[in-house]
Amino acid sequence: MSKTGSESVRVRKAFHVVWREPSVLPGFGLSFAILTSALLALVLIPLAALILKAGGAGAGEILAIATSPRTLAALRLSFGAAALAALVNAVFGLIVAWALVRYDFPGRRLVDAAIDLPFALPTAVAGIALTALWAPNGWFGARAAEWFGAKIAYTPLGVAVALVFVGLPFVVRSIQPVLADGARDVEEAAALLGASRTRTVFRVILPNVAPALITGVALAFARAVGEYGSVIFIAGNVPMVSEIAPLLIVIKLEQFDYAGAAVVGALMLAISFLALLAINAFQAASRRRFGYV
Amino acid sequence: MSVALVVENLEKRFGEFPALRGVSLHVAPGELVALLGPSGSGKTTLLRAVAGLEQTEGGRILFGDQDATGLSLRDRRIGFVFQHYALFARMNAFENVAFGLRARPRGQRPPDSEIRARVSALLDLVQLRGLETRFPAQLSGGQKQRVALARALAIEPRVLLLDEPFGALDAQVRRDLRRWLRDLHQRTGHTTLFVTHDQEEAMELADRVAILNGGLLEQVGAPDEIYENPASAFVCEFTGEANRFLGRVRGGRATIGDAFDLPHMRGPVEGDAALLVRPADVALASAGVPGVVSGRRRHGAGLRIEIESPHARGIVEVDARPDDALAQAARIGAPVFLHVARAHAFPA
């Protein structure tokens, strides 16, 4: 073997020692390259461009846009309604997943398939359908007005309703597998030890489902923050009241205020990133403590 | 004799499949009984029915003289240890053991200080002191199983039920835990029923062994009795190694082949019979049942010689000492004779 050949082998070995555990699985180099280039091309470069664009506005202007009442109201609505919707979905999705996993009823498979509809439906279609239902003269909207004196469509509540709709599948699909193999024998053990049904649910089953539930809620929240199509129809888009941040970005773009749009976008990015980071940190702590997420 | 647990004529089917077909069993207080059988024999179903985890179609279960039929799981006060531990993953070892005490209705719940004392005592009993704050994921299989046992004992169970308690553990840990469980049972004296498919485990551990096959109870008895006097060919073959010879029984004497005959052990068999012979009861001899050596291999301290005989079903396995002259001559392909000292005769 030539000297350069053995040299290159040594370099490659050193590379492997630094970069990864020895493994019999081939393809580390290739998959690592694809991972990094995809991440770079699809995520990092666009995000960097966004931040660059926002940075081009100058500090004073950035601050002005970021603290303008309209921007703050839009951000508050987007994140607030997304959080509310995610919490509603946490409860509702848990019940749906429970029913689908635990009970066998006619049409179960159909219902199970229907859960994914919000994924599949064009968001505009969903938005229009929801608006028709919840508008003051719609099926649900009329009842809501009659019974509770509440107006749903064209208010922040309407935004939350649309976000509940788009977020549900994330929660259900995250919990389902955990509930499905959530060891029957653990529940039987609890019952034999004398635990009531409620105690079993709250002390044994829910803690086991919690990590998956948190993942699902985080996904639903992230999706809801960025949701546009299904919201703009039902929201009414009154500035300062029912105008979501993504819409504000579109409005700014239409007014050729690219820097302003980029600033709002970068703000959303930062808040979302922090929220997801917090959830990840929580899950890492759980993994350290219990040995799994 | 007082009785701690009575199972009467229990019937259970899963769809068309009969899992239990009229099983009856009495267990005395403090007794350790093994339910032994192959998979699908109904042993786990029986255990789960006693626990109240399976609804049965017929028969009844009594704890002492109390009918268990209408009892809730809580009121049954059963300590159940699952094969895969079924520990609560989000609770540490201490909280797992304390669960049953904390779950009691407010009026019957012991004060917190007493719960602490009792859980600590139980963790000492299962030799897990110092591991109170570990979560199940941080415990080994044997440790998890001992937490599960302590958890089951915490509710002061009337009956302790163990479902293949050592099934998921490796051989060395199994042996240790087996001896340890035997000691523990002698100290605490809980009436215990445990399921296993390992005959060695059942024979070594249990006061009595109940052998199930196809949803029927084939035999119940002390390990010695079962081994020495198996009630059926199934029991004989399931409780230990056995060679199966084909022979005839006439007037209480069994014959293998034309010439070789032996005192017939038991059973009202007449005519064609299956004669089951433990490896220890058959030896190479200068005359007897003819056969041809088909294999020889090391078996512990001795040799195990495999012999094909026209009078046996399957291979006959014979143990011999390596320095035995007949064994040294028994090369593969060599003709040999077998002497049968004892046999269990069953209808062919």
Overall structural class of chain B, as computed from helix and strand content, comes to: alpha+beta
* Whole-angstrom Rg of chain B: 24 Å
Classify the fold: give the CATH topology of the largest domain in chain B. Answer: Rossmann fold
CATH class categorisation of chain A: Mainly Alpha
CATH superfamily of the largest domain in chain B: P-loop containing nucleotide triphosphate hydrolases
What structural class do helix, strand and pairing data of chain A support? mainly alpha
Q: What ranges of chain B have pLDDT less than 50 throughout 5 or more consecutive residues?
A: none
Quick check: average pLDDT of chain B?
A: 89
Largest sheet of chain B: 6 strands, mixed
List descriptors.
heterodimer; A: 293 residues; mainly alpha; MetI-like fold; 14 helices; flat; B: 348 residues; alpha+beta; Rossmann fold; OB fold (Dihydrolipoamide Acetyltransferase, E2P); 2 domains; elongated
